[in-house]
Known about the structure:
Distance between the termini: 45 Å
Radius of gyration: 36 Å
Number of strands: 18
Low-confidence stretches: 204-211
Mean pLDDT: 79
Number of helices: 34
Oligomer: single chain
Strand content: 5-15%
Largest sheet: 5 strands, antiparallel
Strand order of the largest sheet: 5-10-13-11-12
Structural class: alpha+beta
Amino acid sequence: MSPLLILSLIIITALALFIGGWIPVDVTALLVLSVLAMTGLVSPSDALAGFSSSAVITVLGMFIISAGLTQTGLSYQFGKPLQLFAKRSEAVLMIVLMLTASLLSALVNTTTVAVIMLPATMELARRSGRSPSRLLMPMALGCLLGGPFTSISTPPNILVNEAMIKAGMKPFALFDFTPITGALVVAGIFFVVLIGRKILPGGKTTASACHDSALESSYQLASHLFTTEIRPGSKLAGRKLAESRLGSALSLTVVGLQRGNDLILAPGPREMLRENDLLIVHGQDEHYHYFRGDQHLLAEDNLQAIELVSENMSIAGATVMASSPLIGKKLAESGLRQRYRIHLLGLRGNQGQRAPVARRPFAEGDFLIVQGQQDDLERLVADGLVGPLSSEEGGIGNTVLMPTRVPAGSALIGKNLVESRLGNALDLTVIGISRDPAAEDGFVFMPSPEEVIRENDLLVLQGNRESLESMQALQELVMEYPSPGLVAELESQQVGITEVLLSPRTTLAGRTLAQLLFREHYGLSVLAVLRKGQPQRGGLREMPLQFGDALLVYGHRQSLEAVAHDPDFLVLDLEAAQAPLVKKAPVAAIITIAVLAAAILNWLPIAIAALTGAALMVLTGCLNMDQAYRSVEWRVIFLIAGMLPLGVAVQNTGAAQLAADALIVSVGHLGPRWVVAVLFIVTVIGTQVIPTSALVVLMAPIALKAATSLNISPDLLMMTIAMAASSSYASPLSHPANMLVMGPGNYRFMDYVKIGAPLTVVITAVSVWLLPILWPPQ
Length: 778
């Protein structure tokens, strides 16, 4: 069997496997390498040469350099201008990406541009709420379209000029390639925006996106995010976030704050609220329905209720005696409110210092300031809870009484006083409930915490003015669902969200988040607790943790990193817990600039420059070796290395020259435009499977020979070769830029064919039309 026939069968089989997708593309490439060596079409050394080829080493090094830029936060800074377009339409995003990539490719090596643009495009996809697969391929195509802008910006242009010099001709000037390249960039962008984006695959496909999808599936995160605005005149304006009572009263977690054009993620408790701030909050479904600007409690001027409370309530002081059953108990365990209908206003320790009321156990010598009806106060003494009573009329301090009506439709109807959170969250005490005077319970003094609130109840609230104003302000809030784009922006290089499990050796089971001071200690917000497959969102601070609970936490990555180092917890997504090494950013920038300068100025071959840069990234601590290994898309490396020997086989068998000679001779008599068309088509087909440099070396002599024999301008045909060799759109094998985005976008071989083949037709048509105009045949 002839070598040409064997080669044809190998190419056809490989293409069928690539298109069918029955086995991974990297495995197909390794099979091609093996068969080429076993059939003798290439020598064993040529078969393995791909693993040491400049293309493989360059791509490998660039993967690690790109990871270094990401780990130090530089890629985020590079892509910051692009993020301004995150809320624009998909068409606008594609135009901006492709135009930016094209212009950068005029100045910097195309592969390097793809490396720099890759993390920025991923961030743009996340912030815009779109799949990376919708933007990564347009970005790569933009790099390829803009590559030939100058005579030194791509290898084909450089090799064409070199061939012309060897032939004794004047080479192209620096910007001779610019007019035709500019036209092709415009045509390519128009095609991708109008037609190509309808062909692009969709869906979240990256590892990060899969993680986000898993979190969304478990926690339904997006459906529990709301926005609410601090309206002009709101009493919340001018208060710190911790003073707003949004968390304690409404069980809302403020995950973001939009102030004008600025988005503040994971704002701290000291963040001052301002009018027109848009808060992004996480909470329960009922918040959307309950908080629509409705009033669930209406302030009412009812002097009669105030006078009734004042006449029947007394304030006294008493000391906890040595024999008191209160000793060692906390307020919730004391039964003061439930059994004795007593409200504890304050507590002074046995040294005279003020002490927290809720969490501190009572001790001998504590002085309590209590409020209740006189009979109930005397029962405390009779039962031995406290010593003799003393008058403490000043104990009420700056608190005031405020009668409030429960209107029809109020969210409080049917809830007991504990569930209303008026006490725990707002520091308001319901010291009286006025109902129908004719009813047996017409007025209830010091109602039990289990007392259920009814429609039209008049609650007499006691508290300081700030708490009462907070209650009024919180009622004015209107909850809305946020835009998908805004939700996507809740993660950044500094702020992230992930799951945290209690480790098998944890000592925290049975303790609550409040007892652990989780927010205070770690600076993280717990958005939900996944227990037995069900997300819990209400009362998280007081919920005892159980082994097997998963906590959905949100906050700064440095805080997530601290949790990852705590033996009591297991962080499931370690990447989310890695804060960028910002202090290493200048080092990473210097290394990247040095690599680019060495390649552009020809100080070093780009492969050596990239490999040296990768080693320096690890050596200087911009990333560690494990991160370097993880950053490499090994599928792409094996794909390139396995397919490079195919180009050698095509040259060795003479297949390429035979086909090119036959096609050019067959159309030479039809005129220069037909010669341009056939030469372009042959080259553009070849560039999909043959390394570009090898293809230009192969085609340049043919073009020069055809120009001489057909009396056509060699400039026209050499420009045709350069443009066609750079039109490698229809295969992931055709250019490293295509391979770089294959993994992150999870593209299949056919995805490149579907969009690249018609784009190649468009570029071919524009080139065949314009080239003879810009470079006349005679």
